[in-house]
Amino acid sequence: MSPRLSTTGYAVLGMLALRPATPYELTQQMQRSLDYCWPTSERSLYDQPERLVAAGLATLVDDGGADGRRRYAVTPAGLAALRAWLADASAMPRFQNEPLLRVLYGDLGTVEDLHRVIDDVRVHVADRRERGAAQMAPYLEGAGLFQERAHIVVLVADLVNRILEALDDWAEQAQQITAAWESTQGVGLTDDLRQVLERMLEAARGRERPPGP
Amino acid sequence: MSPRLSTTGYAVLGMLALRPATPYELTQQMQRSLDYCWPTSERSLYDQPERLVAAGLATLVDDGGADGRRRYAVTPAGLAALRAWLADASAMPRFQNEPLLRVLYGDLGTVEDLHRVIDDVRVHVADRRERGAAQMAPYLEGAGLFQERAHIVVLVADLVNRILEALDDWAEQAQQITAAWESTQGVGLTDDLRQVLERMLEAARGRERPPGP
DNA sequence: CTCAGTATACTGCAATCCGCACTACTGCAA
DNA sequence: TTGCAGTAGTGCGGATTGCAGTATACTGAG
C-alpha cells in the first residue's frame, strides 16, 4: 500500500513519535541524535513530513498560518508502521569513512598529506566527543533532555563513544607508525605493521569458536 | 573546470590508478576494499568511468568490441586530480548505523525486537571479520593481493577491525544489560547503565587536556 | 529613524545515486 | 533443446544531496 518508506523516513517517523515537531525542529534534533546513527542532509528532513502525510503515517497538527512553521505528529498507522519496522531485520552498519579512503590511496600522495589526514581524524573525533559529553552529562543528574528514555540514550551514546574511541586509538597508533615513513610508497611490512596485522588476525581467530575439537 | 567530482568519483579514480579495470572489475574490487571505507551501489560504479572520461581524468584503453567489457585507465590529468584531492581537507566519517537507529527507537517496540537487533549486530560483525581475516592473512606470508601496498592495506584493515571490535564489544555488553529488561520502557538509569555513562564521561574528560593547572 | 548585517527558517533546482527489474550471453546438464 | 545458473551489464523512476536563493526578524551604528 504505502510506497515503502526509506530508512530516513522511519528515522523521521521515530522523531515524530517521540514528540510532534516542525521540519526545522527535526533538523535541530538531527544534530543532537540522528546524526550519530543515521546522518542525512537537512534538505531531506524538510521533505520527509509531507511524504509521511501522503502515506497516512503522520498528520499536520498545526499549519502555522501562511508563514510556515507547520507542526507534524504521527498517526496510529504511523506508530504501527514503526513497530512493524522495528520487528523486521536490520541492515549491516555502513561506514562512510572518507578519511580512511584517503589513507587507502595515500601512496599516491605525499607523506605530509597522509599525516594531515590522520591528524584531522583526531581533531574531528575530539570535537564530536566533547559535544557528546556535553549532551550526556546532564543524564547523570537526572536532567537529560529525554531523561525518561535514559536507558536507551545511554546505550546508543555508548556505542557512538566506543567507535569514536576506536577511531582515536587507531589514529594515535597510525601517527606513531607513519611518523617514520619517508615516502608513502615501498614501506613494506615493517615490524610495527607486522605486529598490528598479527594482533588483528589473532583477534579474528579468537572469535570464531572457543576451543575446537 | 571539471564539474567537481564526488567522493565516489575519486574512489573509482583511485582504483583505476592502482590498475586499469573494467566496470565489472570495479564492482568486484568494491566488495574487497571500497566497501570497508566508502560503500556505494554497484549501479553507480558502472556509470563512474564514463563520467571520468568526460572530465578528461580517465580513458578507454580497450573497448572490448560490441559485447561490452570496456577497460579504463587514468590519464595524467586524473592522477593530478587525485593528488590534489589527497592534499585537501577531509570530511568527518559518517556512520550509517541502521541497527543503532533501531535501538534508538527501541522503546517503541518489544524487548524481543531489541534483543534481536543486538544479536544481529554480532552476526553481521562476525561475518565481516571472517571475510576480512581471509583477505588479510596472505599478507603475513607476503602473498597479499596488493603486497607492494601492504603498509597501507594493513593500516586501513586495522581501523576497520577496530571498529568491528568496538561494535562487537558494545553488542556483547548490550546483550548483558538488556537481558534483564522486562519492558523497553521505564527502565531508568540502572546501576550498570550508570556505570557505562560514568566511564563514558570520564574517558571524554580524560582526553580534553592532560593535567590542568 | 533607517539601513546594513546577521541569524533563522525555509524552497527550488540540477546533479547524483539508488534499488529494482530487465536483457544478453555463456556453459552445461538432463 | 530446454531449462537453469552465473556473469556482465542497461534503463528507469524516484530519493537524496549540495548549493544557491528567498523571506522575515532582530540588532546595533550612524
Topology (SSEs and partners):
The structure is a homodimer of 213-residue chains.
Chain A: H1 7-18, H2 23-37, H3 42-54, E1 58-62, E2 71-74, H4 76-87, E3 94-96, H5 98-104, H6 111-140, H7 150-179, H8 191-208
Antiparallel strand pairs in A: 1-2
Chain A binds a DNA duplex (30 and 30 nucleotides) through helix 2 and helix 3.
Describe the structure.
2 copies of one chain form a homodimer. In chain A, β1 (58-62) and β2 (71-74) form a beta hairpin. Chain A is mainly α. The first copy, chain A, folds into 2 domains: 7-87, Winged helix-like DNA-binding domain superfamily/Winged helix DNA-binding domain (Arc Repressor Mutant, subunit A); 98-208, no CATH class. Chain A has helices at 7-18, 23-37, 42-54, 76-87, 98-104, 111-140, 150-179, 191-208, and strands at residues 58-62, 71-74, 94-96. In chain A, α1 (7-18) packs across α3, α2 (23-37) packs across α3 (42-54) and α5 (98-104) runs antiparallel to α6 (111-140). Chain A is built from 8 helices and 3 strands, in the order αααββαβαααα. Chains A and B meet through α1, α2, α4, β3 and α5 of A and α1, α2, α4, β3 and α5 of B. β3 of chain A pairs antiparallel with β3 of chain B. The structure holds a DNA duplex (30 and 30 nucleotides).
